[in-house]
Structure formats: C-alpha cells, structure tokens
Amino acid sequence: MSAETPVQSAGTFARLRRRFRDWRGTRPFWAGLFTILGGVPIAYFPYATLKLGTMSLTMATTAGAGSLIIGVLLITLGLTMWFQHATRVFAGVAAIILALVSLVVSNIGGFLIGFLLAMLGGALAVAWVPGKTEDTGMGPRAAGQGPTGEGAAEPAPESAAGEPGETHLPYGTGDGGPADGVRSEARNGGYRVG
C-alpha cells in the first residue's frame, strides 16, 4: 500500500453519507422523524412499568389499546412521509389530528412529549414543499437560447412602446383555450398557475 492509495473506508462512508443526504433532501425527512418519535411515547407509556425500589408503578389504563393504535398509526404516518412523500399533506393533517386525540386518550399525549413531537412532525409535513430541480443546461430554455437555423421560431415582434411582445410557443392557441394551460405549465416549470 502506497501513500497515494486512497483509503476505501473513508470513501465508502462519504459516499453513503452523500447518498443519504440526497435521499433526505427529496422528502420531508424531519417531519417523518418527529412523527415517528412522537408515536413511540404515546404507544409505550400506557404499557410501561416503572420500578421504584420494591414498588412498581404501572400506567396501564382502559385506554391502553387506543394509545397503542394511535402510536402505531403515528409511526406508520411517519414512514409514509418518508417513502410516499406525495401524500405528505394527508399524512401531516392525520398526524396533527392523532396528536390532538392522544391528549384525551393516551395519558395527556404521552406526557406531552409524544403530543408535541407529533404536532411538530405533522406541521412540518404540511409545510414541506419539494425543491426545484436544477437545470443541467442541456435544454434550449436553460441558457436562454432557442434553436438556430432553418425552422427555428422567430423572435416576437416589439410593441409600439418598444417592449418585446409575448413570445409564441409552438403549442397553445393564445385564445384562452385548453392549450393555454399547457403553455403556462411549461413556463412555470411544470406547476399549473391558473
């Protein structure tokens, strides 16, 4: 082994860390984590037995099954936020509702620990918005250049005030018909405006 040989373990760890960071950045990771962490105390405390010397303290109540169901549902919603991030709004609202129900059903929401974590996770899931994809510069719109040569669209004519007119895309009718929705989606990166 020479001094120029790279250490494999450092490269593997850095690559795994980078892959995890990329995976985490494409989904509401913290929302799912807080929701899962909120479900654990809500499900655990009603079945826990605390030993204080020779005395054992049990928190089991008649609502133990309800606490277990709420905790398991919160853990499932947290995993849903990670792996089905398209349903993040539904999962966030459901987590908030279950956290509120846990106040009454599950020992004040797992002694407020589970309640606060689940509320925070649900709020983060509702507020999370997917990031914009970076443009690689490969398309004609990326560099602000259109195609050149024969068959290329001509620039829009200028209005009387000297401002460029509306650019005419190869699709759409411009009369407010259904093709205008397609054109507005193309202008806004795939998001429908109006």
From TrEMBL:
Keyword terms, alphabetized: Membrane, Transmembrane, Transmembrane helix
Q: Which domain of life is it from?
A: Bacteria
* Parts of the chain that traverse the membrane: 28-47, 59-82, 89-105, 111-131
Q: Name the InterPro entries on file.
A: DUF6114
Spell out the Low complexity composition-biased ranges.
142-164
Is Plastid among the key words of this record? no
Q: Does the keyword Transmembrane apply?
A: yes
- Specify where the region named Disordered lies, as residue ranges: 136-194
Instruction: Report the Pfam families cross-referenced here.
Output: DUF6114
Protein name stated in the entry = DUF6114 domain-containing protein
Per the UniProt record, the lineage of the source organism begins with: Bacteria, Bacillati, Actinomycetota, Actinomycetes, Kitasatosporales
